[in-house]
Design a protein that fits this description.
single chain; 236 residues; alpha+beta; L,D-transpeptidase catalytic domain-like; 5-stranded mixed beta sheet; 4-stranded mixed beta sheet; 4 helices
């Protein structure tokens, strides 16, 4: 009988010891030294989620985002540093300060414009010599002027965009500027402004179909509150 009692007590104790950890699952557990495999998996990778693609075996090149091709003519724009680059076969041919979008919102009635330079892989769709700026509605609204009819000659402005423009679509262009003090900072309404000498070199090197990478070399900032705009503008 004593042997049976001891066996029964042992079985009850064993069942209680199995049940206790579940009841206190939220209690802090003692820290143990991670194994070498755990240490390697917890180390942060140099690849970051905002990059296009990432190959850790590639040696990083200033101005060339991970995943961008290293062959042929490539134009890149770093909106973190407001710098534009021209690459040929992975080597920098030219670089210079660029004006990029301010990120500001303009509201007028039910219309909302976001002055933002879109990021991603774009392509040159057209090459435009001696471009003439057709002022969109927001340009008049910003100045407090009445908005003229769409075909009004008041909308046409010469020499505002420099000698050349590369059309990237959706109203976004790479072009020159009559305000050189705006270069190297967020000052445009979405387009990418370049200094005259670099613009000429980029224009001559680019062809229709040349890839343009707009990226951030630093983590993107949290978007400002206020909701998404209804549409983008025709930008400068």
């Amino acid at each position: 009988m004593n042997i049976q009692r001891h066996l029964l007590a042992g079985a009850i104790a064993a069942s209680l010891s199995l049940a206790v950890p579940a009841a206190f699952a939220d209690e802090p557990q003692p820290q143990t030294q991670p194994s070498s495999s755990q240490e390697s998996s917890s180390q942060p990778s140099k690849c970051r989620w905002w990059q296009f693609r990432c190959n850790e075996n590639e040696v990083p090149i200033e101005g060339l985002p991970d995943g961008a091709p290293r062959q042929g003519t490539i134009i890149t724009v770093d909106v973190s540093t407001h710098t534009a680059y021209l690459f040929q076969d992975g080597k920098i041919v030219d670089q210079g300060p660029a004006a990029t979008g301010t990120g500001k919102l303009l509201k007028h009635g039910k219309k909302v414009w976001l002055f933002h330079t879109p990021q991603g892989r774009l392509k040159v769709l057209r090459k435009i010599p001696d471009p003439v700026w057709r002022k969109p509605d927001w340009a008049f609204i910003e100045n407090g002027d009445p908005v003229p009819p769409p075909d009004s000659p008041k909308r046409l402005v010469k020499n505002h965009l420099g000698k050349y423009a590369l059309d990237l679509g959706d109203g976004i262009m790479i072009h020159g500027t009559d305000d050189p003090d705006s270069l190297g900072r967020p000052a445009s309404h979405g387009c990418i402004r370049l200094p005259a000498d670099m613009l000429e070199e980029v224009y001559k090197a680019a062809q229709v179909g040349t890839e343009v990478y707009v990226f951030e070399s630093k983590p993107p900032q949290t978007a400002a509150a206020g909701g998404a705009p209804e549409h983008h503008s025709d930008l400068d």
